[in-house]
Amino acid sequence: MNDPLNIAREVIVQEIAGLEALKVSLGADFEAAIDLLSAVNGRIIVTGMGKSGHVARKIAATFSSTGAPAIFVHPAEASHGDLGMISKDDVILALSKSGETAELGDILAYAARFSIPITAITADAGSALAKSANVALILPDADEACGQTFAPTTSTTMMLALGDALAVAQLRQRGFTAGDFQGFHPGGKLGAALRRASDLMHGEDRLPLCGPNASVTDVIDAISKGGFGCVGIVDDTGLLQGIITDGDIRRHVSNAIENKTAAEIMTKNPRTAEANTLAGDILGFMSETKITALFVIKDNKPIGIVHVHDCLSVGVI
Fold first, then answer.
1. Is the dihedral angle over the CA atoms 85, 114, 50, 33 positive or is it negative?
2. What is the mean pLDDT of residues 118-147?
3. ∠ CA(103), CA(107), CA(113), 5° rounding?
4. CA-to-CA distance for 308 and 189, rounded, in angstroms?
């Protein structure tokens, strides 16, 4: 029973059981909590002590990154001046397994004094925290994964999952999009994947374009000068009719290609992107179809082009 792998699996099984119980326990109180958090004009003040405090910090960060302004307030520091960080327009999300954390007392009293609404996450429906809250989310009865010491394990996992559930439910209710999310995550691989085509594309001055009656010689010249491995075929009004890649040229070499026009060898109705298409989607399509460049269009007219190297160079994966 002292095998580390078996112990690890037992811990995970125990915590999964807690999450399953949490899923079943969700009901009207969760919906009420979403309504309370969504109605706030100020910020979501997330607080908790000890392990609950660590979870609270992460929940606050998740809310903020998904467009719901939130901060963590340490309950002990609140008693020494940080209560001033909490305004009448805020809402409090307080975490405590027992619901009797002494350090939360001043925050609860402050909230009552100024009619600041409270959502509680606790395991005891009869606790001081639950009774002080406008909405109490009660964690189901579940054994801690560390049975010998009863250290917060399963309970904090449930708190963390419940915080994620609140944040995701709220953002979907607000219609928060991946594009909105990118605004809060400009850095790293996530930020890169959430950039838009307009952030990466080369503009109209770099577009490799030919008319449908262009000769193959002109097409090859445009591909070579453009440096993107392709050329867009546009009609007299500037509408994109097709695309020719250097691979298309090679495939037509044995078919009297010198006597053909661009319209005869082009791929019609090529896949394109809009200016707001996410970079991650662009790279995913390129990988799937094994192409290296994609025209960006507006009203079916090319306004830019994105090469696979443009995605990779900013960290899109």
1. negative
2. 94
3. 145
4. 15
User: How does pLDDT run across 205-232, given as a tens digit for each residue?
Assistant: 999 999 999 998 899 999 999 999 999 9
User: Sign of the C-alpha dihedral, residues 215, 221, 222, 228?
Assistant: positive
At which residue do the structure tokens 């004009």 appear? 41
Crossing angle between the packed helical segments 154-174 and 51-65, to the nearest 10 degrees: 20
Domains in the chain, ordered, with CATH? 4-176 (3.40.50.10490), 197-313 (3.10.580.10)
CB 94, CB 129: distance < 8 Å: yes
- Of 128, 130, 160, 131, give the one whose Cα is nearest residue 53: 160
Residue 294 CB coordination number (10 Å) = 28
Confidence of residue 46 (pLDDT cuts 50, 70, 90): very high
Give the list of residues 6+ apart from residue 50 with CB closer than 8 angstroms, or none.
101, 152
- 94, HSE (Cβ side, Cα atoms, 13 Å): 35
Q: Is the pLDDT of residue 281 over 80?
A: yes
What is the dihedral angle through the alpha carbons of 194, 195, 197, 199, rounded to the nearest 10 degrees? 180
To the nearest 10°, the Cα dihedral for 206, 211, 215, 216? 50
Considering only CA atoms, which of 18, 58, 50, 3 is closest in space to residue 145?
18
